[in-house]
Amino acid sequence: MTPLEQEQNAAFAALDPLLPPIAPPHGASEPLLASVGGRRAGGLLTRVTHAPGSWPALWGPLEIWDLTAVPGDSGAAGLAALLGAWRDRMRGSGAGPDSGCTLAWPSRDDEASAVLLAHGFAPLTCLAVRPPDPPPGPGPARVPVRKAGDGDTEAITELRLAEWRYTSQVGTAVRRPGARPLLLAEVRRHLRFSGLAWLAEDEGVPAGLAACALASPVPGDSIHGRLPPGRWGYVDTLSVAPAARGGGVGRALMATAHRALLSYEVRGTFLFYHPANPLSPVFWHRQGYRPLWTMWIRRPAWS
């Protein structure tokens, strides 16, 4: 571990005790260096491209430059210098309209948030966590909830499709052709390999879905370097049909899902939500979640 990484880990630990040590990005990357006031700041820049018609293309730009920033004890000033160096590096990159620059940073660092906003970044997604014993909240609504099975594939796909369309307005999803077959394949995969999915029904009609899984951070996945080691419960999708919103369907689904996930003796549960969504931040905070990381994006990328 380099001295700069040691400085960064110490800064993270002081900021939020749940933050794990920083981890290098998965895949090929190139170094980015800057200095401010005699102090060094560094990072690793990774370029990722997604093919049109692929699953990742439903959830973001086709071309992404992602920075793992390590400003160390240079703090917000070092981060600002890194962003300036990143902007200079991107000049002449030829980045098109379907592109973005992304960076994940601890949500509690308000000084870094000010720097990112000043450089044209917007908060896109939050990774939020919930301890296994959160403070008590409002009780679940009396809504029938049952385990989902293979016979519910079409109903689940329609709920996920509705959620994806809504997220394209307030979050990461991108309206692209061919979404339904991709979502259908993902629903089938989830039912086969996870099976942790529940449906809420209103007189036999599907009113909502909670799709969950168990996850442990390993190198190369989206939570490595984001969560402490161990088994976690993951809330992948919560979708409530528009006509059923406000009636306690989401609370009933999550009461069932949390009870099932905690039976696996997980360290806690986590999920991703969109700060611009007018519904989900309030709901998830009332469910005992709090943001740990914020994923920022500048879209399109500097060019």
UniProtKB/TrEMBL annotation:
Keywords: Acyltransferase, Transferase. Residues 131-141 have a biased composition (Pro residues). Residues 143-303 form the N-acetyltransferase domain. Residues 131-150 are annotated as: Disordered. Coiled coil: none annotated. PANTHER family: ACETYLTRANSFERASE (PTHR43877:SF1), AMINOALKYLPHOSPHONATE N-ACETYLTRANSFERASE-RELATED-RELATED (PTHR43877). This is GNAT family N-acetyltransferase.
